[in-house]
Amino acid sequence: MFKHINLLLRTLVLAGVVGIAGWWTLFLKAKLNDRDEMLNSARAEVSALSTRVEDKEREIGKLGKTIDEQDRRIETLNADVAEKAARIETLGVALDLLKVDTRVAKIDVLSQGASPDDPARVRTVLRFTELGPDGEPVGDSRELVVEGKTLYIETLVVKFRDDYVEQGDELRGTSLCLFKSVFGENQKPSEGVALDAVGQQPMVYLGDETPSALHREIWQRFWDYANDAELREELGIRVLHGEAPFIETRPGKRYWVELRSSDGLSIRSE
Known about the structure:
This protein is an alpha+beta fold and 270 residues long. The protein has five helices and ten strands, in the order αββββαββαααββββ. Helix content is 47%, strand content 27%. A hairpin with a 7-residue loop joins strand 1 and strand 2.
């Protein structure tokens, strides 16, 4: 009887141990399953985060490329703007050079009255002063008499191509003129008072030896160049011709004769 009770107790104890062990096994397995689920969830979250990070990195990379492209575009635009600004400035300077007016002579009307030869006509006495590039007199002033009160200034003018004028070329950066004669409305041009000798270097250009060879050639062969397009092209000359601007004068007035760098002569009262 005692043996049976002992065996029963041992069986119960063993059953309890087995039960406890089984419970712990199930408990631990459940815990392990929970941990696996957590790990799997964490791995999934990490994977999702990694994907998001990669997406962000790709987005950042694209943005970086876009920024680089924009920077290059901005640099290109800045260079283009700078180039255009420089071009505008150059064109502005060129346009300014085309419009430069240089005083080439000063005329003072000393008196005006009846002509001794014909009291019905007017005779004008004037002082003619040729001016250099600096606006200062070249040579001595000349006192001249013309028949009439309308003064004609007969000249020969050389006009160079605009591209030379725009560049401020040393030899061809402005028009040239030679004062041939002056006369009044009551005189024939052939009866006018002679000024610079045709075919010779005008007095105003004699002081500058650098361009004198070129200019002397032009003045010596003026009408040859005027009638030969190929000769003009060789020297960059646009046109050569005579001009005779005129103005009705008033006693005591001063008149400036001006030469535009890209054009011809004008007379302006002071």
